[in-house]
Design brief:
This protein is an alpha+beta fold. The chain has one domain: outer membrane lipoprotein receptor (LolB), chain A (Clam), CATH 2.50.20. It has helices spanning about 5-45, 60-70, 160-170; strands spanning about 80-90, 100-110, 115-125, 125-135, 140-145, 150, 185-190, 195-200, 205-210, 220-230, 235-250, 250-265, 270-284. A hairpin with a 5-residue loop joins strand 10 and strand 11. The radius of gyration is 22 Å and the shape is globular.
Amino acid sequence: MSTSWTRVLWAGVGLIGLGTAGSLYAKRARLRRDRARRVASLLAEAEEPRPLPSPDLETLPAPIQRYLRHVLPEPPPAVRTVRLHQRGSFRTAPTAAWRPFTATQHVTLRPPGFVWNASVQMMPWVPVRVIDEFRAGQGALRATLGGVLTVADPPRTPALDEAELMRYLAEAPLYPTALLPGGGVEWTPIDDRSARATLTTHHTTASLVFHVNMQDEVSHITGERAHITEDGTAERRPWHGYWRRYASRNGLRVPLEGEVGWMYPDGREVSYWRGRVVHIDHVP
């Protein structure tokens, strides 16, 4: 092949490479705009905080009374939104390797909602970007490899809506004013160390049992949550979450470490998410 043709060939390869790089850049830019749009939409729906008089905690089950008195000041602050940063590890199956992640999460209390924006290092130099959310009454989960190739995007179904609202409820110890009377959560007593919380919004209902330890902290939550496959099939499984290392942040006592997993038919508790709160803001 002549030198001139060789130059033409390599020029063509270079143009193809530039075109591919340009396409990837454009897709990543669209993904960034989409993430920003989701957060902006969530925060735009947040209602202004209401002045909170001294709440009538006597209407709540005894363990929840003790818990809220322990973690809230008097009077409790009015919280409109929450912004937090996390680090931790995640795995996709019981035998899969743990992969590190970083995440930013925005939460609204009225109406209940969140957008979790995470980067999971599934392979060297190529992160999986994950958006997990409950917004405008709908749940959604989307994962993209390198911000370009979609690897998970289950269809929106009532089961997915319930699963995402359940996540919001399970994470309420991070924003405990959401559990006060008038916040939308209905409580059913079980015993001196546990009570069932039920939350309904936008025609979706989620329910979990909150367990309170001897330090009057919510130590773990239990319930049945839909395990949703890529095709949208949902199978209800026992689900659990643990909260640890409570500390004072913005006048509230909140857990800084957590772990979430499934209970399998053979009795195994298998975690798939472990995280810690690096920073949290409770915004009035």
